[in-house]
Write a structure and sequence with these properties.
Layout lengths: L8 E6 L2 H12 L3 E4 L3 E4 L7 E6 L19 E4 L3 H10 L3 E8 L4 E7 L5 E5 L1
Parallel strand pairs: 1-4, 5-8
Antiparallel strand pairs: 2-3, 3-4, 6-7, 7-8
Length: about 120
């Protein structure tokens, strides 16, 4: 099957894009390349989607775990050292939400919320 297109961007809704863009810029080691009042974007690397942040009035972070599909989307971040990554994201303002064990390979996934409350996982 031929692809209809390629994934250009992942856009996270938020109340304040500046601190959220700063958090993800540090986590993903990508510079912020666009700064507007209601839209910020990180650098897009070849073969990867860019990560963007858009202002939404009355933004409310999704609950985790969502019991009725409220979460809708989250980011999985693959890391080499789970302990070092956990320390780093907590130092950048993330909040720990819990752990998940991936079946069938029993890989540990640690679940966090970014400063705006979006769930994301760290996994090795």
């Amino acid at each position: 099957m031929t692809a209809v297109g390629s994934l250009r961007s992942i856009v996270l809704d938020c109340a304040e894009p500046a601190p959220l863009a700063g958090f993800w810029a540090a986590v993903l080691d990508r510079p912020v390349v666009q700064r507007d009042d209601d839209w910020w974007a990180l650098e897009r690397r070849p073969g990867e989607a860019r990560v963007c942040f858009q202002v939404v009035d009355a933004f409310e972070p999704p609950p985790w775990p969502g019991e009725h599909g409220e979460q809708q989307v989250h980011l999985d971040v693959e890391v080499d050292d789970l302990d070092a990554a956990r320390t780093a994201v907590l130092g950048l303002g993330a909040r720990r939400l819990g752990d998940v064990v991936d079946e069938p390979d029993d890989r540990p996934w640690q679940v966090f919320a970014d400063p705006a409350g979006h769930p994301f996982c760290l996994v090795t």
